[in-house]
Write the structure tokens for this entry.
Amino acid sequence: MIWTALLRGLGFLLIGLSVWLAAAVSRRTRARQAAQLPAGMRILAADLGERLRSLGRGGVTLRDNEWGIAGKVDLVLETPNGYVPVEYKQAGPSYEPGTAKPGHVLQLATSMLLCEGDGRFGKRPAEGWLRYLDGQGRLLPGGEVRIANTPRLRDQVIASVQRMRRALVSREELHRDHQSAAKCAKCSRRLACDEGIV
């Protein structure tokens, strides 16, 4: 009689586990579809917020000790051609299909440098992707822009890092480099900034 109860309990446990696993796989599939990822790509790291958290791995801080930088990349994919960092951007009113904003390219280039310098990846990605989304989080037509990881782009990131480091050490003043009220409104430094537009 005890064995019958134990077997019945084990059966309910297995059924419950099966239902939970099926729901988890379903959530992951829906999240992958929402992110509109190409098939056959393995997700190595994801920092996409609550909506797409079930894609798999959580956000991972990448570090490049050579240049002394660290940061989170929205997504790192493993493709047959190597690692690909992906940055998602909300398309603004000036969005043009197939084009990328220079600041977004520089951020993506920094992500590529982080992938290269971090011991978990340690290889220089051949390219990175910028993916522009509409207000509902859907990829826009022409919204995926692939950026080649050229030596010139890499040097541009390194020059920016070195300039920031020099400014910190020498206490040189850095000034706002844009005329965008929207950018100021979202800036993490806005409370300490004397040059804010908002």
In short: Residues 42-174 form one domain.
